[in-house]
């Protein structure tokens, strides 16, 4: 019995697991010893303690780490990566926080050397775009990436549950998919290689590498049509490129597109039903698993209620003719 008590004492005092902020907020393991790893998003000094907002990217929520000033490493600053070991307790606001026994800095962040982001500040997209390598550290972009991941998973699950086969269509293609859009032409960025190959095969500059002109894909439609003739139900979710003379949000040079093909569809209503099911299933799953993340993102970007994804589930999808759609747009 004494040995068992000593074993429990040793386990509680010396053994612990590494958890993400998302896992902790979900399981609420109050009184447990844990190790957390992440980045310092804000730091505050009060009396004898330092309060650190730890962000590990698993959620938009942060976990407060509390540690006495005399235990804080000199290299612990805003933006640095660190690990903290301590016990999880609830503060007067009934929120979990980590009372740290120790902190170890993994990667210092020398803010004075020109770190572009400051704590508790927001920046416009044009400014953030100038720092692509650390853009995911901003709250807005981190939230967007998590939602994008959830949506991609929901799309794949929707098609998989309906027995569709995912096809990885090629990015490099010799067709322009029935003129679906302006194409980017691909050639090697090596002049000496091109000259050597031209002298060998006597092709033109744009045809020499692949023995014909090759483009970045504008659509996987033709490949999927071939696959559907053997597998019945196929789809792809992948990058698409359009060389259009526009930089607006309506005409992107690169974007991800969902395309699906199904053999033996006899009625238009069947196709429309599949489109409606795809939209509603993906939105429902996203709201079920990430409603808190969606609400947080919408607040950060100031989205209007008209653009709330919940609206996609409130009303039935109306089927109209092409001519009626043109009249509405006019």
From TrEMBL:
Q: Which Gene3D superfamilies match?
A: Bira Bifunctional Protein, Domain 2, Nucleic acid-binding proteins
Does Ligase appear among the keywords? yes
Give the signal sequence positions: none
Tell me which InterPro entries the record gives: Aa-tRNA-synt_II, aa-tRNA-synth_II, aa-tRNA-synth_II/BPL/LPL, NA-bd_OB-fold, NA-bd_OB_tRNA
Q: Which GO terms describe its molecular function?
A: asparagine-tRNA ligase activity; ATP binding; nucleic acid binding
Which Pfam families does the protein's record reference? Answer: tRNA-synt_2, tRNA_anti-codon
Q: Which GO terms describe its cellular component?
A: mitochondrion
- Please name the GO terms of the biological process aspect recorded for this protein, alphabetically: asparaginyl-tRNA aminoacylation
Q: Where is the Aminoacyl-transfer RNA synthetases class-II family profile domain?
A: 145-330
**Which UniProt keyword terms apply here?**
Aminoacyl-tRNA synthetase, ATP-binding, Ligase, Nucleotide-binding, Protein biosynthesis
What protein is this chain from? Putative asparagine--tRNA ligase
Origin organism lineage: Eukaryota, Metazoa, Ecdysozoa, Arthropoda, Hexapoda
């Amino acid at each position: 019995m004494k040995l068992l008590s000593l074993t429990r004492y040793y386990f509680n005092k010396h053994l612990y697991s590494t958890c993400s902020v998302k896992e902790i907020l979900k399981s609420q393991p109050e009184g447990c010893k844990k190790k957390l790893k992440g980045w310092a998003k804000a730091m505050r000094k009060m009396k004898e303690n330092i309060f650190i907002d730890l962000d590990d990217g698993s959620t938009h929520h942060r976990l407060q780490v509390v540690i006495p000033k005399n235990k804080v490493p000199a290299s612990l600053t805003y933006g640095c990566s660190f690990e903290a070991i301590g016990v999880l307790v609830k503060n007067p606001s009934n929120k979990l926080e980590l009372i740290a026994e120790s902190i170890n800095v993994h990667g210092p962040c020398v803010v004075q050397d020109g770190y572009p982001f400051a704590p508790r500040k927001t920046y416009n997209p044009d400014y953030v775009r100038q720092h692509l390598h650390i853009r995911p550290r901003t709250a807005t972009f981190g939230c967007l990436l998590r939602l994008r991941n959830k949506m991609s998973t929901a799309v794949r699950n929707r098609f998989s549950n309906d027995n569709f086969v995912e096809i990885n269509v090629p990015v490099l293609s010799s067709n322009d998919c029935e003129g679906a859009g302006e194409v980017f032409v691909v050639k090697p960025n090596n002049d000496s290689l091109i000259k050597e190959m031209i002298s060998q095969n006597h092709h033109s500059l744009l045809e020499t590498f692949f023995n014909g002109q090759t483009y970045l894909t504008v659509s996987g439609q033709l490949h999927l049509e071939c696959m559907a003739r053997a597998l019945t139900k196929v789809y792809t979710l992948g990058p698409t490129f359009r060389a259009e003379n526009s930089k607006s949000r309506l005409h992107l040079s690169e974007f991800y597109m969902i395309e699906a093909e199904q053999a033996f569809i006899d009625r238009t209503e069947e196709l429309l039903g599949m489109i409606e099911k795809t939209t509603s299933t993906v939105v429902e799953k996203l709201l079920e698993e990430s409603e808190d993340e969606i609400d947080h993102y919408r607040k950060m970007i100031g989205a209007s209620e008209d653009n709330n994804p919940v609206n996609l589930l409130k009303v039935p999808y109306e089927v109209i003719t092409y001519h009626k759609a043109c009249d509405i747009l006019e």
